[in-house]
């Protein structure tokens, strides 16, 4: 992702209100679901940010390595606000991976390199969602008796959360608004004048993003797309397994 104002006190205040409100209204079952969501959130964020770091490194930029971001350690990639949103809303972000486009391989322009790095994160999330869906359906087909056990039910639930969280994170970050990954991809394909206009209005687009997040409009847009992809992916994998 692009630079995110993670030290913004207003955002942290909103985060605190979100967390407290959700926890106070939770039943025991909801708390259990929250606990089961944690592994999926950690995996989704970690691999998303690792993919950014890996792509930048492969393009010739050693900034992620120097900052310890080419790592699968979740603690290297967690942003408190994005982490909490993934837990409670199903979409969010990790700590942005810093890059220096000037270090990229000369085979690519800086904008192309930035777009490649940006798209790597969401693509990784969709890849994980596909793998998790295959495992989810495989358990259903080949180990139905295991699923009804306590351990099997927990694993099956964890896989379902892994699918949903990764799809949600992938979609959310493809929204073409700063500071999300989609804005970097969009800029790569804009003509020069439109690109300059986009840069000039970046602050406004960032405010639009904040309003969409705070008011829940982001969820209204994302959830139908998430459900469509989740259902479609599940049907495809079920068909492959002959179910």
Give an overview of the whole structure.
The protein has 243 residues and is an all-alpha fold. It has one domain (9-240). The chain contains 11 helices and no strands. α2 crosses α4 (80-89), α5 runs antiparallel to α7 (150-173) and α5 packs across α11.
Order of helices and strands: HHHHHHHHHHH
What gross morphology would you assign?
A: globular
How many domains make up the 3D coordinates?
Answer: 1
What Rg do the Cα atoms give? Answer: 19 Å
Q: Roughly what is the average pLDDT, rounded to an integer? A: 85
How much of the sequence is in beta strands?
under 5%
Low-confidence stretches: 1-7
The class by helix and strand makeup works out as mainly alpha
Work out the helicity level.
over 70%
The description of the largest β-sheet is: none
Which structural traits does this protein have?
about 75% helix, mainly alpha, about 240 residues, about 0% strand
Secondary-structure topology with pairs:
Blueprint: H1 9-24, H2 28-58, H3 63-66, H4 80-89, H5 110-142, H6 144-147, H7 150-173, H8 181-189, H9 192-200, H10 202-215, H11 217-240
Helix pairs in contact: 1-4, 2-4, 2-5, 2-7, 5-7, 5-8, 5-11, 7-11
Report a brief summary of the structure.
This protein has eleven helices and no strands. By secondary structure, it is mainly alpha-helical. It has one domain (9-240).
């Amino acid at each position: 992702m692009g630079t995110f104002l993670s030290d913004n006190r207003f955002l942290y205040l909103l985060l605190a209100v979100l967390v407290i409100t959700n926890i106070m209204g939770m039943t025991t079952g909801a708390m259990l679901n929250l606990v089961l969501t944690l592994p999926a959130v950690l995996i989704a964020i970690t691999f998303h940010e690792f993919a950014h770091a890996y792509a930048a490194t492969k393009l010739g930029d050693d900034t992620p390595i120097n900052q310890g971001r080419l790592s699968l350690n979740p603690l290297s990639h967690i942003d408190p606000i994005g982490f909490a949103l993934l837990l409670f809303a199903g979409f969010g972000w990790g700590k942005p991976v810093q890059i220096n486009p000037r270090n990229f391989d000369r085979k690519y322009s800086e904008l192309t390199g930035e777009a490649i790095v940006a798209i790597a994160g969401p693509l990784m999330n969709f890849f994980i969602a596909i793998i998790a869906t295959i495992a989810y359906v495989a358990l259903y087909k080949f180990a139905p008796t295991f699923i009804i056990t306590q351990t099997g039910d927990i694993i099956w639930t964890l896989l379902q959360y892994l699918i949903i969280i990764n799809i949600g994170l992938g979609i959310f970050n493809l929204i073409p608004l700063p500071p999300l990954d989609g804005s970097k991809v969009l800029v790569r394909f804009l003509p020069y004048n439109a690109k300059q206009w986009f840069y000039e209005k970046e602050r406004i687009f960032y405010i639009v993003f904040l309003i969409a997040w705070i008011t829940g409009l982001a969820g209204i847009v994302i959830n139908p797309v998430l459900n469509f992809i989740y259902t479609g992916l599940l049907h495809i994998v079920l068909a492959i397994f002959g179910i």
